Amino acid sequence: MFTTLLTVVFAILFFGVMIFVHELGHFLTAKKAGIQVNEFSIGMGPAIFKTVKNGTQYSIRLLPIGGYVMMEGEDEELEDSSEQSHAQKGEFVTAPEGATGVPYPEAAIWKRMIVIAAGGIMNLLLGLLVSTLLVAFGPAENMGQTRVVSQVLEGSSAQQAGLLPMDEIIQVDGQPVADIQQLVQAMAASEDKTVDLTVQRDNQVETLRDIAFQQSEDGVLHVGFELQLNPKTPLAVVRRGWDATVFYGGVVLDSIVSLVSGQTSPSELSGPVGIVSVISQTAQQSMEQLGWLFVMLTVNLGLFNLLPLPALDGGKLVLLVLEGIFRRPIPKKVEIAINLAGIMALLALMCYATFHDLLRLF
Fold first, then answer.
1. Which 8-state DSSP code applies to residue 142?
2. Contacts of 313 (CB under 8 A, 6+ apart)
């Protein structure tokens, strides 16, 4: 019971924070660009608190699932059709009193592009921030390893070959290695699991031959020596946080490419149910792992939203580019039809993914 409750809390927190930060990006850039923002809402459903300040209504709503930004003129047809029902609830579709900004369609195209892109970018920045904090306050291992040997195991092939602490590995089988990633890749590429290591020792270069190692089924190398960790300086922490964010971004993009190319079946996608299941499993491991899961999810949200697909921010950017090329806006009815088709496709994909999530669970 407690685990289920904890999962629900973390799921609401994850999705709530990610969507709030996404919408905050739209809101802040719209305000900075001088675009009229009629409402900035935290949550969905009926409003439990609202106040008007500087021409914008700020709302907190009952359901803690995301939020939204409503800009003047962004969806004119939708506003016209729903203005009366919103007005009966005391909500603003048209600009509240004190509004001074320009309607969204009247803003310069480059300003609108910044506003639209800001949501996804804010998610990526959130991922970078959380990654950096996890590195800064997490275990020293999060800093990653250098090429400098810290310890050689007694009786290992590396010790027999003459490897010593403080040796800096600069080549594997004659191939230069600039960092730990290249070092591991070069060793893993050895077919007979025996390598020659070229090291720098006391300003001299030596080559140590026939160092044997093992590789387990999960890909872990057992090499008979350990490497020093990178020092936890402020610059190194930020760089490591950046590397982690880029890594997760690469994982997301690789997944998208695999899906589009047919290498991955759509049935392998995770919908909301699958994501909540992963949150539940990760919450039972450690808070640190939960933090890294959050990084992956927010980076995924940011990149996915920037894809050039209808209804997504990336699709809206494409329409703005076309508007700039043809020097006139895409007809609203056409834009709404395109976005509606995109929404229907996304909903269908979500339902499909959720169906397979349930099959995997039960």
1. G
2. 116, 117, 119, 120, 305, 306
Written as six digits, the tokens of 315 are 């699709």
Report, in angstroms and rounded to the nearest whole number, the Rg of the chain calculated over CA atoms: 26
Alpha helix positions (H), 168-312: 180-188, 234-261, 272-283, 287-305
How far apart (Å, rounded) are the C-alpha atoms in residues 202 and 169?
Answer: 13
Every domain of the chain with CATH number 2.30.42.10 lies at: 145-229
For residue 7, what are its two tokens? 């999962």
Which residue shows structure tokens 């329409």? Answer: 319
Fold for domain 145-229?
Answer: Pdz3 Domain (2.30.42)
- Please tell me whether the overall predicted TM-score, pTM, comes out greater than 0.85 for this model: no
Q: How many CA atoms lie within 13 A of 273 on its CB side?
A: 14
When mean pLDDT is compared over 40-54, 75-89, 208-222, the highest value belongs to: 40-54
What's the pLDDT tens digit per position in 143-182? Answer: 888 899 999 999 889 999 999 999 999 999 999 999 888 9
* Paired tokens of 263: 């290498």
Instruction: Tell the residue number behind the tokens 């402020």, with chain if given.
Output: 234
Supply 277's token pair. Answer: 């299941």
Task: Give the whole-angstrom CA distance, residue 231 versus residue 146.
Answer: 9
**Other CB atoms within 10 Å distance of the CB of residue 23:** 20
Token pair recorded at residue 248 = 């997760």
For 118, list phi and psi in degrees, rounded to 5.
Answer: -65, -30
Contact in structure between 117 and 313 (CB atoms under 8 Å): yes
